[in-house]
Amino acid sequence: MSQIRIKDYADEARIFYARLFILSIVILILVCLLLGRIIYLQVMNYDHYVTLSQKNRISVLPIIPVRGLILDRSGAVLAQNFLAYTLEIVPDQAENVPDLLRELGKLVQLTPKDLKRFTRLRKDRKGFESLPLRHRLSEVEAARFAVNRHRLRGADLRARLQRHYPMGSLGVHLVGYVGRISDSDLKRIDKAAYRGMNYLGKLGVEASYEDILRGRAGYEQIETNAHGRRVRLLDRRKPRAGKNLYLSVDARLQAVAEQALGTRRGAVVAMDPKTGGVLTFVSTPTYDPNLFVNGIDEASYSLLRESPDKPLINRALAGQYAPGSTIKVFLGLAALEFGRKASKRTFCPGYFTLRHSRHRYRCWRKSGHGSVDLRRAIVESCDVYFYDLAAELGINKVYDFLTGMGFGRYTGIDLDGEKRGLIPSPEWKRRIHNQPWYPGETVITGIGQGFTLVTPLQLAHSLSFIANRGFGMQPRVVYAIEDRANKVIELLKPVPSDLNPVKNKQHYDVVIKAMTDVVHGPSGTGRRIGYNAKYKIAGKTGTSQVIGIKQNEVYKEKNVAERHRDHALFVAFAPVEDPQIAIAVIVENGGHGGSAAAPIARKVMDYYLYKVLPQKALGVTPFVAPPEDKVKKRQLGRG
Predict the structure, then answer these.
(1) Which residue of 284, 312, 382, 446 has the smallest Cβ count within 10 Å?
(2) In terms of Cα–Cα distance, which of 568, 572, 573 is closest to 593?
(3) What is the CATH number of domain 324-406+420-454?
């Protein structure tokens, strides 16, 4: 008899509800966990994750433009760019910046200066920008970083263009240098224009033409994931490269001038009197501008700053010296313009005295020159003649004429940092010293002493007026700008100077004849450099006192400390018939201009006239501008 199994529905229901309860508890727990995570993400850490999401999603990365080159008149490169490894950090992509810096410090050498600069940049830049930490890594350091890159989130190694000066110290006071953007720079520059950039021009052409050399930065707008990896490119603007600059200076001539000066302190400025183009621009001692590109170390900078030779001073542009006897050619012109006859004679017994005064103003020739006219006074540099001339003209006429010839004022050169020198006047002395003007001060102004100060650039510039017999051009160092993108070269048009106090052009002939005899005459103070010259040189020697000499004291160079000895000066232009070069040379504490400064000028003039002008002699292809339809011309303004 079969058995019939009857289900216990009550028991099964109990089991079912137990299981359902357990499942509900599990589901509830899962829901609570999910809600908790949502609350954690969307409420408790909302600001953090929104910011992280936004910054990671869209990034704007600057693209640094290539800085323009600086070249000499023949195309020799004076400033260029080269690739170097730079260690950079994007702060927003780093999990912990201090920890990252510590890890990087184990792989590459990081100085306190590197860390301080990075901290400063981090304050001034956006978090998504790539900031330089260490420049110019060695190959070993770059390889060490590459091996560990996977664990250094936010850090990367970039190949960046850095500035380099292939000729080292040659022309450093002209070309200048770039340096890292400093705190003071950040206060004056347009930060948007320099986004992503770490350098700007500090001195010389690099600074004066910064806006042209720099170019314009581009950018990439990219989408990234949460790990900072690039997903896609949203927008891009190409950078605009900086323009190249061609200087009127010749690098070979610059080297000749620097070698001629040697280890002596001084300056040489030569220019084309017809165009105003600066041919050589020397200030010694020099220094290597490459030291400053990535930040000069404290010890090296202290050596330069504290050196008694003051290599950081641009003597050609900002050195201010008493002109000594070089001023006599300009006062000779003044005499003729104010009606004094060139044939009028002054007797030189070796000294000059003012009326009602017993003080003797001595001539450099103790025995005197006897009776001299203007020509002989310039040729033999008679002090007494010019003492008498200055006293006759008076300080106001002397002031008006010399400022009219370009002294005591800016030349208008396209470089920053020029000094204006000083031509004194009674009004100036009252204003600055609160003292009256004395007749004796007029007397010594006649030989370029006293308060009078000029720069080497001013001497060369003002001399060009005499060389051109009445007209001159503003000095300039840049003569062409090359736009590589549009393949256009812009020639800078010479700018005439508004100086010209001489109304009678024949007066120039009188002074030029005397200057020619200074070099080629039998008694000229510069006759030493006239020997065997195949072209005519018009020149004037000068010697300016550094310390005063008592009334009855005799100056003996060997008894005077080297830095208290007279400065040696020489100015000249050549060839006399068709001037191609005007030059000013100053040798600090060099003694007599005819023996110390004039030979330097002769070397520079020889090289320019024989080697630079006929460039084919050296096999150098001269810089050739494109056809006129591709050339724009404009007048040259200041930097």
Answers:
(1) 312
(2) 568
(3) 3.40.710.10
Task: Give the residue extent of every domain in the chain.
Answer: 59-247, 324-406+420-454
Using a 10 angstrom Cβ sphere, with 0-12 exposed, 13-18 middle and 19 or more buried, the burial of residue 558 is exposed
DSSP 44: I
Cβ pair 83, 161 in contact under 8 A: yes
The residues, ordered by sequence, that sit 6+ positions from 504 with a Cβ below 8 Å of its Cβ are: 336, 337
Rounded distance between C-alpha atoms, residue 39 and residue 43, angstroms: 5
Please answer whether residues 529 and 519 qualify as being in contact, where contact means their C-beta atoms are separated by less than 8 angstroms.
yes
Task: Write the CA distances from 278 to 140, 269, 455, 579, integer angstroms.
Answer: 45, 7, 15, 14
The phi and psi torsions of 166 (rounded to 5 degrees) equal: -65, -25
Percent of the chain surpassing pLDDT 90: 56
Q: Are 331 and 446 in contact, with CB atoms under 8 Å apart?
A: yes
Phi and psi for 133 in degrees, rounded to 5? Answer: -110, -45
What separation in angstroms does the CA of 548 have from each of 440, 449, 460? 14, 10, 27
pLDDT at res. 1? 47
Tokens found for residue 561: 């400390």
Cα 53 to Cα 189: distance, rounded to the nearest angstrom: 32
CA atoms of 101 and 634, how far apart (whole Å):
51
- Rounded to whole angstroms, how far apart are CA atoms 595 and 541? 9
Whose CA is closest to 560, among 548, 543, 542?
548
User: Would you call 542 helix, strand, or coil by DSSP?
Assistant: strand
Q: In the structure, how many helices (H) and strands (E) does the chain have?
A: 22, 22
Model confidence pLDDT, tens digit, residues 208-259: 999 999 999 888 887 776 656 667 877 888 889 999 999 999 999 999 999 9
% helix, strand, coil for the chain, step of 5? 40, 20, 40
- Give the angle 596-599-600 at the CA atoms, nearest 5°: 90
Whether the Cβ atoms of residue 482 and residue 243 lie closer than 8 Å to each other? yes
Record: fold of 59-247 = Penicillin-binding protein 2a (Domain 2) (3.90.1310)
Question: Per the residue annotation, which of 325, 497, 544, 595 is the catalytic one?
Answer: 325
Our answer to whether residue 462 is catalytic in this structure is no
User: Can you say how many angstroms the Cα of residue 147 is from the centroid of all Cα atoms in its chain?
Assistant: 42
Query: What is d(CA 282, CA 134) in angstroms, rounded to the nearest whole number?
Result: 34
CB-CB contact of 126 with 57 (8 Å): no
Q: How many CA atoms lie within 13 A of 21 on its CB side?
A: 6
The rounded Cα 120 to chain-centroid distance in angstroms is: 26
**Close Cβ partners of 56 (under 8 Å, ≥ 6 residues apart):** 92, 224, 225, 226, 227, 228
Alpha-carbon gap, residue 446 to 393, rounded angstroms? 10
Q: What is the pTM of this model?
A: 0.81
Q: In this structure, is the dihedral angle defined by the CA atoms of residues 579, 580, 582 and 585, taken in order, positive or negative?
A: negative
- Output DSSP code: residue 63: E
Cβ within 8 Å of residue 191, ≥6 positions away: 124
Burial of 592 (0-12, 13-18, 19+ CB in 10 A): buried
Cα 78 to the center of its chain, rounded Å: 13
Contacts with 212 (C-beta within 8 Å, 6 or more apart), sequence order: 68, 242, 243, 245, 481
pLDDT digits (tens, 9 = 90+) for 165-217: 999 999 999 999 999 888 888 888 888 888 878 889 999 999 999 999 999 98
Q: Is the peptide bond before 575 cis (omega within 30 degrees of 0)?
A: yes
